[in-house]
Write a structure and sequence with these properties.
Helix content: 55-70%
Radius of gyration: 32 Å
Number of strands: 12
Order of helices and strands: HHEHEEHEEHEHEEEHEHEHEHHHHHHHHH
Distance between the termini: 37 Å
Shape: elongated
Strand content: 15-25%
Largest sheet: 6 strands, mixed, barrel
Number of helices: 18
Length: 425
């Protein structure tokens, strides 16, 4: 099968030779390849980060959060709220949440406490059944569950004891006078922190949860924060489909008018919004790498056009149209862009597949952790190549490369046959 003349000429101009132009052509492939690879790596990491964050949130947080209404600090009757949720097929559990100061032998740090009833909490979260749990989930008063990163940072293991201080207890005995003086309201009162023993260690894969969260029994959390027995700071619920909750939210808000009803997406909307903006901004900025590479292709084609001035003049003198000449150079630019883009896709997917191994090698070679979990809030580098992102990056790269080829294509097509032959002589 005979190829069209323009295709044959385009391939001929692409044929490697031991010339300076051939070296530039090969270097021109590297630009789009690196640009596309970086775009695929970044979008895959951002998509994987978003997915891991959502999985971690859905593993620890509930799908529904019922909290006290404005002006209220707790739910007086969480049982009634649970019954209302049950009528809509929602599994629910009461919780008491708040910040605390954790004290161990070697120091102290601020963490968050979540008071639970283990039997009900097992219905709304997977913390004790995700396959990465050590110890016993069914805690009693005087026992606690901590994250694996917290255990590592504080040097704790199952069976160790720690002290928990509630800010309300620490500040409740202090009063500020009108003259600016600070006084102790109950000087004879002795403050004793809560002592608990580690009964289990969980791993969710999200640094904020594995490092900053500690579970206590609901009754002990109520005593710690000074709430009345039987109350709660919220009720958490689990539904069948956490991504289709609009009708349920509307019904619950109509029935629970004295409470604030939010979905897990609403609770974390600032985080998800920030992730979307970050991904969009990164893609926008990194696209300029492909744009710069495309201008490299344009420079290569102009060099080819100058080198082939006599040949182009002969072709036009033999009757080749300006459109066909332009199409030849557009085809050369398209071939360079296509090959470079495909190389970039392969390189990007390869790096994503071996991302954690590569990070480990770099960490050992540099002597520092290139992906510290306390900074990125994940224990390993996420990565999920999205087919839509890969296709969009591929098509965009090809279009940019072809558009950049327009300049040399128009330059070559505008050559006068007589002038081209005269300049060559």
């Amino acid at each position: 099968m005979q190829l069209p003349a323009d295709v044959l000429l385009a391939l001929r101009y692409m044929r490697p030779k031991r010339t300076f132009v051939s070296a530039i052509t090969l270097l021109s492939l590297i630009g789009p390849a690196l640009g596309v690879a970086i775009l695929i790596i970044v979008t895959s990491v951002m998509s994987g980060f978003d997915e891991d964050i959502r999985k971690g949130i859905l593993s620890v947080q509930s799908h529904l959060v019922i909290s006290p209404g404005p002006g209220q600090s707790s739910l007086v009757d969480p049982g009634a709220v649970i019954k209302t949720l049950a009528a809509h097929g929602v599994l629910a559990a009461p919780v008491i949440e708040g910040p605390v100061l954790i004290q161990v032998r070697d120091g102290s740090s601020v963490r968050a406490v979540k008071g639970i009833q283990p039997d009900l909490e097992a219905l709304v979260s997977s913390i004790g059944s995700n396959g990465r749990f050590e110890g016993r989930f069914e805690i009693r008063e005087g026992e606690a569950l901590i994250g694996s990163m917290m255990a590592r940072e504080l040097g704790l293991k199952i069976g160790d004891d720690l002290l928990i201080h509630a800010p309300q207890r620490l500040t409740g005995n202090i009063s500020w006078q009108e003259d600016g003086a600070i006084r102790v309201t109950e000087p004879d009162e002795v403050y004793v922190p809560e002592s608990v023993r580690v009964a289990g260690i969980f791993t969710m894969g999200v640094y904020d949860f594995d490092s900053g969260l500690i579970y206590l029994h609901l009754d002990q959390a109520a005593e710690l924060f000074g709430y009345d027995w039987g109350t709660a700071t919220g009720v958490h619920g689990r539904v069948r489909d956490p991504f289709r909750m609009d009708a349920l939210l509307e019904a619950l808000r109509d029935e629970l008018r004295d409470c604030t009803v939010r979905s897990w997406q609403e609770v974390n909307q600032l985080l998800f919004g920030a992730l979307r903006v970050e991904k969009t901004l990164m893609v926008f900025l990194l696209t300029f790498i492909v744009v710069v590479a495309a201008f490299g292709i344009a420079g290569t084609l102009i060099t080819v056009a100058v080198q082939k001035t006599r040949e182009v003049g002969i072709l036009k003198a033999m009757g080749m149209s300006r459109g066909l000449v332009a199409r030849i150079f557009l085809m050369v630019g398209g071939i360079i862009g296509l090959v470079g883009t495909l190389l970039g896709v392969g390189l990007g997917l390869l790096v994503i597949h071996y991302r954690n191994a590569i990070a480990g090698v770099l960490s050992r070679a540099m002597g520092v952790d290139v992906f510290p979990p306390e900074l990125y809030h994940l224990t390993q580098i996420p990565g999920k190549p999205m087919a839509g992102d890969v296709v969009l990056i591929t098509v965009t790269s090809l279009l940019i490369c072809v558009m950049a080829s327009l300049i040399p294509a128009l330059y070559a097509s505008a050559m006068s046959p007589a002038q081209a032959l005269q300049e060559e002589n």
